Amino acid sequence: MNKNNFFKQTETPKSKNIDKSQNSQLKYYYGRQCISGDDIQAVTEVLKSDLITQGPKAKEFENELSKFFGAKFAATVANGTAGLHLIGLALGWKQDDIIITSPITFLASANCAIYAGAKVDFVDIDEKTYTIDPNKLEDKIKSYSSKNKKIKAVVAVDYAGHPCDWKSLNELKNKYDFQLINDFCHALGAEYENDIKYAVKYADAVNLSFHPVKHITTGEGGAVLTNNELIDRKIKTLRTHGMTKDESILEKNDGPWYYEMHEVGFNYRITDFQCALGISQLKKLNKFLEQRRTIANFYNNYFKDDERFITPFVASNVKHAYHLYPLQIKFDELKIDKKEFYFRLKENGVVFQVHYIPVHLQPFYKKNFGFKEGDFPISEKFYQRELSIPIYPSLNEEDLTFISNAIVTTLNEMK
Ligand SMILES: *Cc1c(COP(=O)(O)O)cnc(C)c1O
To answer: Which residue owns the Cα nearest ligand 1 atom 7?
Structure first.
């Protein structure tokens, strides 16, 4: 195949060339990667080199991530879930520790506590920002105190790309002494108090994912950012079986081949060709962010004056990164069935996803921790109303008009 054609074909999803009036098959999903010729070239170069894993690219990607996000240390890992797993271990979570997150997140934000043998509890989201509510967190901490218990850590999620109320979370951390983790998978490039490097300033450890729906991708992949050298060192040892060659730790040294294992780890490494993709993608993050914000602006303008919708709020000290565009429809008040709306909208060419099914309502968490419907009412109501509509850089104005019209037309049809 001609090289140029190959690059062209992989450049963008082919929505532009399709006549939408005739194509009921056409589906827009909520997210997808944006890969172009330079990305493919970067990966190909590594594939032709001697080391396709454990070569120089992981370190190079770590350096670039450190620079971009203002972190002293960065550790690449196999995926975001592996990153959360290692964060819990590096922070010393153990049996009976209490780890808090919010119900509106991906399973992994809670599961990482389970991996460490710890207990999960939840705190409801703020109605406006959809992130963990610091007032309710303090109530939760006080209610544990009254039983002579302390929480170990909070995994706070910058949901959809809107930073949490980090100042309040930090005040609580100083007042009650717990660890603070930023599950930052949605928020690459978000700004808090005009600062794109805010994440490591407030959290002990920051978790990133490079899954194809996220801002930048390596296929599967992730990274942990921190300003704490001990946490970084621990994560880098645990991601590769717990092996160490660190002279200050070795009990003896038989020679250059020699290593020791002091605690059990995993193989949670990422390949060099994936890191090459990550380096290439990171260079385009600012452009991707601009495109995502343009798309969000379009939707905001389209839906904001229609009473049936609630568009995402943005706090005045925040710049949203829009991993997701969480649109709420007042299905309850409109007496419209969300499931039926899903199928009808799909017929009209648009597929939405829902972020998220409240984690406390998963059978595992209900069964093992006794959570039930009604425990976190704001999250539950949000789940009833939320749909994540398509947002990724290659959508153009024609696409956005089609998507928005499809949503309104479908709603109108169901009245
Ligand atoms: C994507 C995501 C993860 C998990 O990342 P993977 O790379 O898919 O393992 C964890 N938390 C949140 C909030 C995410 O969005």
So the answer is: 80
Tell me the backbone φ, ψ of residue 147, rounded to 5 degrees: -105, 20
> For residue 164, how many other CB atoms are within 10 A of its CB?
31
Secondary structure class of 191 (helix, strand, coil): strand
Does residue 302's CB lie within 6 angstroms of at least one atom of ligand 1?
Answer: no
Cα-based angle 347, 350, 354 (whole degrees, multiple of 5): 115
Q: Which amino acid is residue 188, in one-letter code? A: L
* Segments forming the whole domain that contains residue 155: 37-282
Tell me the three state secondary structure of residue 189: coil
For the chain, how many structural domains are there in total? 2
Residue 328: which CATH number? 3.90.1150.10
Averaged over 6-18, what is the pLDDT? 38
pLDDT, tens digit (0-9, with 9 covering 90-100), for 320-364: 999 999 999 999 999 999 999 999 999 999 999 999 999 999 999
Residues β-bridged to residue 297: none
Least Cα distance to 60 among 317, 331, 282 occurs for 282
Is residue 312 classed exposed, middle or buried when 0-12, 13-18 and 19+ CB atoms within 10 A define those classes? buried
Contact 275, 57 (CB under 8 A): yes
By alpha-carbon position, which residue is closest to atom 6 of ligand 1?
80
| Ligand 1, atom 2: closest residue by C-alpha | 185
